Amino acid sequence: MKEIVVISGKGGTGKTSLTAALASAAVKKYRVVFADCDVDASDLHLLFNPDVKETHDFYSSHVARIDQKKCISYGTGTVCKDLCRFEAISYSDAAGMVIDETSCEGCGVCVRFCPAHGIEFPDRYCGQWFVSDTRFGPLVHAALDIGAENSGKLVTTVRTAAKHMAQNGPDGSGPEADYLIVDGSPGTGCPVIASITGCDAVVVVTEPTLSGLHDLERVASLARHFSVPVHVCVNKFDINAEQTRSIIEWCSRNSIPVLGTIPWDRSVTAAQIQGLSIQEYAQKHGAASVADAVNTIWENLCQLTQ
Amino acid sequence: MKIAFSASGDTLDAQLDARFGRAAKFLIVDSDTNEYGVVDNTQNLNAAQGAGIQSAQHVVSAGAGALVSGHTGPKAFKVLSAAGVEIYLSSAATVRDALEAWKKGELQKIDNADVEGHWI
Amino acid sequence: MKIAVASGKGGTGKTTVSVSLALSVSDPLVLLDCDVEEPNSSIFLGDTTGRQTETVTVPVPVLDESKCTACGECGRFCEFNAIVCVGTSVMVFPELCHSCGGCIRVCPHGALHEEESPVGELSFCTISAGTGSNRALILVEGVLTIGKAMSPPVIRAVKRKGAALAGTLSSENARDVLTIMDSPPGTSCPMTTTVSDADVVILVTEPTPFGLHDLDLAVQTVRKMKLPFGVVINRSDSGDDRVREYCKKESIPLLLEIPEDRRIAEGYSSGIPLVQAAPEYREQFARLARDAAYLAGVVNDGRKHA
User: Fold this and answer.
1) CATH no. for A64-121
2) How far is CA A37 from the centre of its chain?
């Protein structure tokens, strides 16, 4: 079983659309399990149309809460507020001492040092994750609660569940899947790191812009830092032929395989609006060049990860 | 000597868990008598980060002189080494198989973390 | 006044809008690039090679072994497994440390103190911008070092620097200087850290299912944070009407629509700002700034910011 993670560095390059396209191509021959690890703004379900089979609440770390009945501060003598490094505690005459849960990082300092022992420290509810059936195969996905911390733990939870399913089948006794395809997040921080460590291949979707190249360099460096093999594909390549060339040359200088290029095409958005993969849309309405491009990318990826 | 094994279950016939940090249990086995105790690691799964570190602490507090697991990341490795715990890698299917392999001296002892950290 | 430009989905045009605003407003201003994982605004601002740089650090615990008794209090307290007591030694993992200062306080023997550990870099410069006037634009950009996982400390450093430099632009009151904050995508800690002290948030979206889904998450986030906000639709004719209908239904001010335009796309790909590729937009962005200020004033009624 090979695990492939699709990331982008820069947001909006077409990562999720490509993940669905890889799904469409892969399932023709292979058994595949999917994970949406872009838990902050997860969109893959809009193309996969999941039938949710399992829902799990997700708790991570703690959050501090002041018990107003025990609080002895009246705006003066504010030990908790003075100690908080995250500016999460404030005082108002109307509400008293209040902790802003979005800013609270769950460090526990105020809880420990409150002279009235008036601060509670419950587990923090962060959102939910799901196991679903889809027309492409099983999908593990999540929805992070508004303003919740995204340490990467939910990403790891989703990824671990998907990996387990890929290795052992949906009921634990089934055959191993051939591929686990993961839709990752933009950026280079905790959630991306948690998505890519230990996988078999990373596919970076980039676009032919200066911003795209700049962000590709950073995210490729991140993948290298974690010893994960990098592959690139260039989306909307024909909006700037010169930039596309720069990217391909950069990849060549850095020994990074380019899996393919995808032309800019309105049908990609049209497919999204209909909740279809690029190839499914092309089957109904034409736009073969885009469908061919993504199928080629899959073929090349397959060969390189055999 | 007491040896810790990362495991998915409670007995010597349980699957050896390839992951150390997020393993469900540790079996602490006395290599002379084959008697063992079970350390539950599931509350560790609640840690937002640094699970390998917590697992390493469990192994150390249980008095193990050696650990057998599938992989060990860099932070767990640091903690275990600081406590003088020897680290062996095994791809054996069960704890019992891994124990036999250890006794025969067939397992690879590692001097460095063998995988990059997961961050989480 | 502080305007934050955010979105749910990546790649909708946050940097485009931030830079366009910065280049269209006639007053001196500070532009903060808070997308520290993938900062891009400098690409559109001409020659910024003469920037000053500063290292961003976070405090992490350091042990004085002569005072340590290996009692384990520090390790038991730490919520992040960043400090551990093993046998007779204490180990610190700075990459996991949230710099809460708790372990230093709980140590009964005063064996811990804090030292600064580097996590990223700030760079800043003054750019002469605007049409012929001596209007100054100060750019502050933050970059998270590759391999480091947490953006918020670097984002906070960018904001502090911005506030300090704003003081050099206005002889009377630094708060009167306009600050534009280009936010990271998403709705978790990097975005909430950036927008937390904004007077108004501009949410940039695109008229697609992904755009709408993620816009709704961003709207819920800014509502939870009680921040006034409005929406800009980029590539407004490239999808369907659901985003417009959503804004109407939710009574969200729709501040500007930018139709798809080859000049803009090509300009963007080569680092040419929108208001240079399509100068007729300067007027519209100047008005966007005024509308945003109005939104900030209308809802604010007396609420003060530090």
Assistant:
1) 3.30.70.20
2) 3
Whole-number average pLDDT of chain C: 90
Rounded mean pLDDT of chain A?
A: 91
pLDDT given at position C301:
42
Model pLDDT for residues B49-81, shown as the tens digit of each residue: 777 888 898 899 899 999 998 878 888 888 999
For chain A, the chains sharing at least 3 beta-carbon pairs closer than 8 angstroms are B, C
The interface residues of chain C toward chain A in range 208-237, judged by CB-CB distance below 8 A, are 208-210, 213-214, 217, 220-221, 224-225
Q: Is residue B116 part of a domain?
A: no
What residue spans in chain A does CATH classification 3.30.70.20 cover?
64-121
Residues of B in contact with C79 (CB under 8 A): 48
| Shortest alpha-carbon distance between residue A30 and chain B (Å) | 25
- Domain coordinates in residue numbering, chain C: 2-45+129-300, 59-117
- What is the nearest CA distance from A244 to chain C, expressed in angstroms? 10
Q: Which of C147, A202, C102, A198 is closest to B22 using CA atoms?
A: A198
Whether C238 sits inside 8 A of A185 (CB atoms) is no
Which residues have a Cβ under 8 Å from the Cβ of B99 and sit 6 or more positions away? B3, B5, B12, B29, B31, B34, B68
Count of domains in chain B? Answer: 1
DSSP state letters, A32-70: EEEEE---SS--THHHH--EEEEEEEEEEEE--EE-TTT
Q: What is the pTM of this model?
A: 0.85
Chain C residues within 8 A of B50 when measuring between CB atoms: 80-82, 93, 96
Segments forming the whole domain that contains residue B81? 2-109
Length of chain C: 306
Asked if B118 lies within 8 A of A194 by C-beta distance, the reply is yes
Q: Which amino acid is at C244?
A: R
* B22 occurs within a structural domain: yes
Q: Does residue B119 belong to any structural domain of this protein?
A: no
- Rounded to an integer, the average pLDDT of A157-186 is 88
Instruction: Kindly indicate whether the domain formed by C59-117 is annotated with CATH number 2.60.40.10.
Output: no
Determine whether C290 is exposed, middle or buried from the number of CB atoms within 10 Å of its CB (0-12, 13-18, 19+): exposed
CA distance linking residue A109 with residue C101, whole number of Å:
8
Quick check: B118 and A156 CB within 8 A?
Answer: yes
Chain A residues with beta carbon closer than 8 angstroms to that of B120: 151-153, 155-156, 190, 193-194
Residues of C in contact with B56 (CB under 8 A): 84, 86
A2-60+126-304 has CATH 1.10.760.10 classification: no
CA–CA separation, A297 and A293 (whole Å): 6
CATH number at residue B64: 3.30.420.130
Residue A61 contacts B, CB cutoff 8 Å: yes
Q: What is the ipTM of this complex?
A: 0.84
Whether residue B88 is contained in a domain is answered as yes
CATH code of C2-45+129-300, in short, is: 3.40.50.300
